[in-house]
Structure formats: C-alpha cells, structure tokens
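The following record pairs a protein chain with its ligand, zinc ion.
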Amino acid sequence: MPELPEVRTVARTLDRLLRGKVVEGIRIFREKNVLDGAEHFRSLLLRHAFLSVDSYGKHLLFHLSGGSAILAHLRMEGKYFLREEGEEKGKHDILLFELSGGQRLVYQDVRKFGTLEARKEEELWDRPPLSLLGPEPWDADPEETFGKIHRSSRPIKELLMDQRVLSGIGNIYADESLFEAGVHPLRPGSSLTRAEVEALLQASSSIMKEAIERGGSTIRSYHPEKGVDGRMQLFLKAYGHGNEPCPRCGFPLRKLEVGGRGTTFCPRCQKDPGKPLLIGVTGTIASGKSTVARYLEEKKGYARISADEIVRELYEKPAIARQIAHIAGDNAVEGGRVRKDVLLKRIAEDPRLRKRLERLVHPKVYKEILRRIDALPPDGKAVLEVPLLLGSPIEERMDLILFVHAKEEVIRERLLARGKDPREALRVSPSFDRGEVRRKCALLLDGSSSLPSFLEEIKGIPYL
Ligand SMILES: [Zn+2]
C-alpha cells in the first residue's frame, strides 16, 4: 500500500498534469468506489477546473474551481494516469475524467479498494476521515504524540501505523523509522520514553522526506505517470531485508508478524531494554546443537537453557512418572522415575502413543522454558537449545534462530557412539521443513565436521 511519500509523489505528478484542465465529462465504470454516489460526484465537479492537487497522510486532495474538491485514497493498487484519446478502456478502470484539450485522466484499480469522493472544499476537514487524522510526522507536537503513545499498551509498530496518532506511516516506513530510532517494534507504547518518541518523530520525518525527494518507493502500487522505478528500495535498511545482516551491527535482521503485518528489525540495535537477548538453537538430533550452546555458555557468557535437560528433570518427578506409566505402561517407569530407553522403544513402535506423550510433556517444557526466560536479568543473554523450536509458543521470543544440521551418516555414527539405536532415535526425532527453516533461521550451521573445526566455524561468527 502506498504510504505518505508515494501518495505525495502521485499528488505532485497529478498537480503538474492537471492544473488548469477543465472536467468536461465524467464516466464512472464502478460506482461502488465513488462514495456519496455518482450523481453527487458529477454535480459537484462537472465544468470545474483543477486548481491544484496535494495530499495529506495517505489521502489525495484535488482542489477545483467553484469550491469543489475530491478526496481520494489509493488503498492497495489504485493508480491515476493520462490516457490519450482513442486509447481503449482498461479492464480495471474505475472512472475516467474527460478533460479540456482532449486528454483523459483514468483511475484504475486492480484490487478495487480505492475510493473517490466529491466534497465542498469547506467540508473537507470537519468530517471523517480527515477530521480523525493525526498530524503528519513533521508537524507533530512531540508532547502530544508522546501522550497518545504513552497511554496505550499496544505495540509501538501498530501505534505508528494508527492514522489517528500520526498520518501517512504504513508498514514500510514504520519498520524503517523504528530501525532508525532503535526502538523494538513490539514494545508497548506505554514503555517508551519521551526521548524515544522524539527520536521516532525525527526518524519518520527525515526518512519520509528523503523518500519524497527520491520520488517515492515503487512497490507495484503507484503510478506517478506511466513509469515505475524502484529507486526507493535501495534505500530501505530494514524493510524487506529479513535474515540479512543489520547494516549497522551485522546481527541478522529478524522478521516477525506484528498484528498480521511482516515486521523486520534488528534484535540488537532495537533491543527491548526490558528483555534479555535470546538465541535459539534448533536442528536435527545429534547434529551438534549442544556443542553450539555450550560454546556460547562457556566462552561468551550466555546463560544456557536446554529443553532436553528440562525433559530429563521432568522424568525424575514421581507425579509425571505416574502419568507416563498411565499412558505408556508400568514398565516405562521404575522406582518413581521414567525409564527413557523403554519409553523410546515404545514410542518408536507406536506413533499414537508418541502424540499422547507429547501432549503431556511439551506444554510443561515450554512453560518451564518461559519461566527460566522470565527469571533472566533484562540486560542478560541466553542460548536456548530446543529441538522443537519452530512453530512452538516460544519461537517468537527468540532474537535469532540458529539451525544446526549434519550429514545422516555422521548422525548415525554419533548415535551409535552414544549407545543408541540410530533407527529408533531417528524415527522419534522431529523432521524439518526446508522452506520453514530457511525462512525462520537466519543462521544455518553444518555440524558434520569434527568438533574442533565446528568450534572454529562458530568462533568465526562475529555477532555471537
Ligand atoms: Zn543492528
């Protein structure tokens, strides 16, 4: 969706093209997009001349003679362009103005969400939507904006995109402004300081001004004249760069969904001061996850949380052992403790049993992991070794997910050396979807090599 800089660019282009042109005819092909109806639209605009075109936030404002105006919104894919006489009607045309001099201005909208509305100039600002809109970032009073943001517990990313708080910021410029100001997108508005709100206003103003100068980023959705170019894309630092190194510190940029919108940020430069830095290590069985986690614990000062160790501790508890005996049979438990070898054999034979066991154990494990995360100091850092991290309730808490894999023959050898039956162990170990791994894990390590050379590889990662 076009945001303030793109809309302003469209407005400037239309201003240049339309000034002085008289509306001689209006053809409406899809009345639904014309709010207040075709009749009203025609009666306010016919035979009036375009005086100027400008924009406010994401709205286009056409000013015409006789005190008439058009308020328009491009939504997803709306675009305006001039069509010469004789050119054919397009499939997605919504509306066409016949202009003096024989030209036609077409509004086309593939997604059909865009709107146009004729208004009297004096009614433009005292009715919604314009009466509800907050200021554009450069006109915002820092004190007032801080008040609006500080009152809310919603994530700051959502607040920046809320047009009642500030006008014109959408998904792209919210990510870019948060990156520039060093603020984590998920922080509740109420946790932001006055200085951080000021930094956000400063960042969004300067980024959007620069974008306007560059003619707006063109992400398919807008059409200044006919040409489309992507100059702005080159200048975006966070948006669209998930899993790539942060241009400031090199840490992989993280991409999460915030309120259904893809959100990219640097977990280090935009760290939430109230939360520790968390690195999740996941991957196939016997691939070297523990080697990575132990290295970070011993050499880099990370606290270590291991899901396998939590499971082992759970199996020592008589209450859990009783529940497991109930599911897997009495011989899976001995002296009040779970016998892991027997249990492994049983679940390797029976997938349904495995499911029932997972339903009992997994929620307890994730709950314990969350308890341990919450017990960490806010300025601390931890590495979490969790085989089933992807798709789990703790995945989104991670600042970086590292995936360790190894060649199957290496895994088999390692399992044998640990006194395990590789066939059984592999059958009960989780499988991974390659696409999901590539999307969610910014760092992929091959743990097939010998321990010293694997450690060298980890040591070589500058941001860990
Ligand atoms: Zn960074």
